[in-house]
Amino acid sequence: MKSNIELKVNDRIIALNPFVKKILSNVVLGAVQALDKIPQPWEKIEITLQAEKK
Fold this sequence. Notes:
With about 55 residues, this protein is α+β, with helices and mostly antiparallel strands. Helix content is about 30%, strand content about 10%. It has one helix and two strands, in the order ββα.
């Protein structure tokens, strides 16, 4: 399945080169496909990472 990926840092879109797009897409898709109970086919996957407050 072909996927589109976007990276935002502090609400700013960061340009990704084709290599980074492929790596990130494959890592996320591989992890999600390894999980049980993920509805198929899926349309959108969202991951949010937030820095821990010190």
